[in-house]
Specification:
eight-stranded parallel barrel; TIM Barrel; 2 domains; single chain; about 450 residues; globular
Length: about 450
């Protein structure tokens, strides 16, 4: 955890808020979910390995209110597990605990235990702000209308007043809601004592550069010292599998978003370390080379959220352990097949499961350890890998929670093999390809 004085911007509406001694998120950070609070050390080992490659990436342990409700856990358990890992591995670099996707109704239980807050305003996106507020915003920002030139974006944008009115109408209320959440947290923790992320990715279409700039101008006006912003990108960011979409289009969007952020920092006085956050970023292997090429061009940082893949590595480890571990993994899959509609319903927009490619419970029951782990592990070159099988189990973690001590005791009994899978997945498939390139040491 680092504290710094933010540089004084040349000009901008955010000046009154952003010249604080503030807790500062490091340049590169990885959001790591640990749904059952048993893999913090294994996750931290991955950060140690990438540090040995010359890149500092700090862990941000994240867990949402919905996940806590499914698991029956409390935010205090995330902090406790993180702190235990940091002490056990003698980690001297930064680390954080993220109250993931919280709103005014859910944030209070997280405040004593988190130093990073992802403000979720999805419900307000698209709800029109008061006409007077939209008009006042436009009056305060004449620079957004006309010819808009952003350094490193080749062609200037021709922006009409009608366009800005439409954009503000779509996003201004959501930013105002983010401001309410931020001020509520600040009222209890004190401004500057936590990191703020604003999530704008749960909407119907990717933000254009103009839309992102309007959002950032509004964030500055609300006095939110956002250190990360999560926009929506083109394509599908399905849970636990690779990106599905136009890679060239993603590359253009990612580049332009970096350019807009760099411009907004100077123009509106936002924190100098403001960076992109890629949500559902786990397993998006085809995007990592694109991201790795783009970041140095802007000397930009990155926050990548990997969330639920740790639970899948636990299941892979139990399957590889054989015996009772493999038996439990098969039981969980059989239950998932039986309750597939219930389990997948809440995630319909972020999974693409081909039910015809799912093995029956009886077929999976006959699998060996190698067959089960081969189908589940995200190795696209492996002949057994089954993306539909993986996605179904990704959203079935509540079934493991219902097993209670039986599941947790097996995690403890097979800590070594489970932990090795967790570390290898995070380091070899995520951190190294994203920040260094392929290859690297064996875990």
């Amino acid at each position: 955890m680092l504290w710094s004085i933010q540089a004084i911007p040349e000009s901008g509406v955010g000046d009154n808020v952003l010249h604080l001694l503030m807790l500062t998120l490091e340049k590169y950070s990885i959001g790591v979910g640990d749904r059952f609070a048993h893999q913090a050390k294994a996750q931290l080992r991955a950060c140690q390995l990438i540090a040995q490659d010359g890149v500092d990436v700090v862990p941000v342990w994240n867990k949402s209110n919905r996940e806590h409700s499914f698991i029956g856990s409390e935010p205090s358990t995330v902090l406790a597990a993180a702190r235990e890992a940091v002490e056990a591995l003698d980690w001297k670099k930064g680390w954080h605990v993220d109250a993931d996707h919280i709103g005014l109704k859910t944030v209070d239980r997280f405040i004593p235990h988190s130093d990073f807050f992802t403000l979720d305003v999805a419900e307000a996106i698209g709800q029109r702000a008061a006409s007077a507020d939209v008009e006042a915003f436009i009056q305060r920002h004449p620079e957004l209308i006309g010819t808009l030139s952003i350094p490193r974006i080749q062609e200037p944008f021709q922006v009409t007043r009608t366009q800005i009115e439409r954009i503000a109408g779509k996003f201004l209320l959501a930013v105002q809601e983010a401001g309410k959440i931020y001020r509520h947290i600040a009222g209890q923790k004190g401004a500057g004592n936590f990191i703020t992320e604003v999530s704008m990715d749960e909407t119907d279409s990717p933000q254009t550069p103009t839309e992102l700039l309007v959002i950032l101008a509004a964030i500055a006006e609300e006095g939110i010292p956002a250190q990360t912003i999560a926009p929506k990108f083109t394509g599908r960011f399905n849970k636990g599998v690779d990106y599905a979409g136009d890679l060239a289009q993603f590359e253009r969007e990612f580049h332009d978003d970096l350019a807009v952020i760099a411009f907004a920092i100077r123009r509106y006085g936002l924190p100098i370390n403001l960076k992109l956050s890629v949500h559902s970023g786990s397993d998006k292997f085809s995007l990592y080379p694109i991201i790795r090429r783009a970041l140095p061009k802007f000397e930009a940082g990155l926050h990548l959220k990997t969330a639920g893949t740790t639970w899948l590595e636990e299941l892979i480890g139990l399957a590889e352990a054989g015996g009772e571990g493999l038996a439990l993994a098969k039981e969980i899959y059989a239950c998932a097949i039986e309750h597939i509609d219930e389990l997948t319903g809440p995630y319909a927009t972020v999974i693409d499961i081909d039910r015809a490619k799912l093995p029956s419970a009886a077929e999976a029951h006959g699998w060996t350890s190698g067959q089960f782990s081969g189908a589940l592990r995200h190795d696209q070159k492996h002949s057994l890998f089954n993306p539909s099988f993986r996605q179904l189990l990704h959203v079935s973690f509540k079934l493991a929670a219902k097993k209670g001590p039986r599941y947790l005791d097996l995690l403890k009994a097979h800590e070594e093999i489970v932990g090795r899978n967790v570390t290898e997945n995070l380091y070899a498939r995520h951190l190294r390809p994203l920040f260094v390139g392929e290859g690297g040491r064996t875990v």
